[in-house]
Design goal:
By secondary structure, the protein is of the alpha+beta class. It is 24% helix and 36% strand. It has helices at 2-16, 27-39, 42-46, 99-121, and strands spanning 50-55, 59-64, 69-74, 77-82, 87-92, 95-96, 131-137, 143-149, 159-164, 170-176, 185-188, 190-194, 200-206, 211-220. Strand 4 and strand 5 (87-92) form a beta hairpin. The longest helix is centred in the middle third of the chain and has 23 residues, at 99-121. The protein is globular, with a radius of gyration of 19 Å. Mean pLDDT is 89; it is low at 1-16.
Length: 238
């Protein structure tokens, strides 16, 4: 029985696994990437100072985009995170953790932020430092927009192929990433919402095996709009 299961898994891997498509950068790819960003109103996203969301009902973030800081909470942990420096303060049930343990929890919070903020709005990262853009032809004949990340984040070297609708807004992407065993795994970008100011966010990503939901999304101009009397990240600001 075990041998049969292993054989079935190997066959599934062989059938489903896709090689990274061959591609070369071009001005046309850059133009399409800019159209994709316009379709989700990336300029409105840039004007949001604070954004809150929860990923998969587990990790909650309150991101100060202006100062590159984030309050990250999950389970019994809270981390006040300086995103650029990868430092901060870590708490368990409100108690500040000792240095040795806090370093590990801060690292986890940073990894959570990198992954979950990418699922929140990867569209606006199409021109990040270390990216390249290419046009490819998908198996069904559709045109795809490949974004390759040679640097940045937790797993540099990953590639994503965006599948767009007639208005250049994403409907799905295919992924070639280190953390997944299958190349070309496809997730939808659906259940779009429009935030105050016009930025659009997809709140559900489905594959054939799993659904990744984004909830509790709120854009704020100040911390009081999120229920705080003062800035909760003040103590880690320079």
């Amino acid at each position: 029985l075990l041998l049969g299961v292993l054989c079935a898994l190997l066959v599934a891997w062989w059938v489903l696994d896709e090689d990274v498509p061959e591609a070369s950068t071009s001005p046309q790819a850059d133009k399409l990437a800019k159209s994709m960003m316009q379709a989700v109103n990336a300029s409105a996203w840039d004007n949001i100072p604070i954004i809150q969301w929860t990923f998969k009902g587990v990790h909650t973030f309150q991101w100060d985009k202006v100062n590159h800081l984030c309050l990250v909470t999950w389970d019994t942990y809270t981390v006040k995170l300086d995103i650029d420096k990868k430092i901060g303060k870590a708490y368990r049930q409100g108690e500040l953790l000792p240095l040795a343990e806090s370093l590990h929890i801060i690292e986890k919070a940073w990894d959570f932020f990198n992954n979950d903020s990418f699922w929140l709005n990867a569209v606006v990262k199409a021109f990040d430092e270390g990216t390249s853009r290419s046009l490819i032809k998908l198996k069904d004949g559709q045109q795809g927009l490949m974004i390759h990340y040679s640097s940045g984040g937790t797993t540099p070297g990953d590639s994503y192929v965006w599948i767009l609708d007639e208005n250049r807004r994403p409907v799905a992407w295919k992924m070639w990433v280190k953390i997944l065993p299958l190349g070309g795994m496809e997730f939808s970008w659906e259940d779009w919402i429009t935030l105050p100011g016009g930025a659009q966010i997809a709140t559900n990503h489905k594959s054939s095996a799993v659904s990744l939901d984004i909830s509790n999304v709120k854009a704020a101009q100040n911390w009081s709009e999120l229920g705080y009397l003062e800035n909760p990240l003040l103590e880690i600001m320079e």
